[in-house]
Amino acid sequence: MSRFTSHMALALAEARAAADRGEVPVGAVVVAPDGRVAAAAGNRTRELSDPTAHAEILAIRAACRAAGSERLPGHDLWVTLEPCPMCASAISAARIGRLYYGASDPRMGGVDHGARVFDHPQCHHRPQVYDGLGADPSRALLQGFFRNRR
Ligand SMILES: [Zn+2]
């Protein structure tokens, strides 16, 4: 059994960097089975003019590229906010082993709210899900970001 290390601090740093770029502050980190950080990313939907450029998607793409594989078995994904349905589907398709997310997202989330993607019988791979890690700083970042935009 390997020692447990939280990667939420790195995910939060990516979220902060996203906010500095004027993007919705969400950050994600993919961790390889050996504990190495395989990829880290923040939202870039505005910069890339791409509605799919969520932090989770960008991190999964980079980790898959590095692994030379469309699947990431045994990898963990850390993200500051509950993934939306699109990202939850990508997490399932990538065969991510464990999902750690920070703040819950009753409005856009698709894991424990709304579509509840992993609970569908059509969902062939369900990661272990752990929520609430780093939820407070994640929520504070999001609230600060949207407050400043009004
Ligand atoms: Zn998403």
Explain what the structure shows.
The chain has 150 residues and is α/β, with parallel strands linked by helices. It has a single domain, classed as 3-Layer(aba) Sandwich (Cytidine Deaminase, domain 2). It contains four helices and five strands. β3, α3 and β4 form a beta-alpha-beta unit. α1 (8-20) runs parallel beside α4. The structure holds zinc ion. Residues 2-112 form the CMP/dCMP-type deaminase domain. Keywords: Hydrolase, Metal-binding, tRNA processing, Zinc.
Provide the CATH topology.
Cytidine Deaminase, domain 2
Share of helical residues = 25-40%
Strand order of the largest sheet: 2-1-3-4-5
CATH superfamily: Cytidine Deaminase, domain 2
- Class from secondary-structure proportions: alpha/beta
**Main beta-sheet strand count, sense and barrel state:** 5 strands, mixed
The general outline is globular
- The CATH class assignment is Alpha Beta
Radius of gyration, in Å, reads 14 Å
Q: What order do the helices and strands follow?
A: HEEHEHEEH
DSSP summary, beta strand count? 5
- Under the CATH scheme, the architecture is 3-Layer(aba) Sandwich
* Integer average pLDDT: 95
The hetero compounds bound to this protein are: zinc ion
Binding site for Zn(2+): 54, 84, 87
Active site: 56
Function: Catalyzes the deamination of adenosine to inosine at the wobble position 34 of tRNA(Arg2).
Protein name: tRNA-specific adenosine deaminase
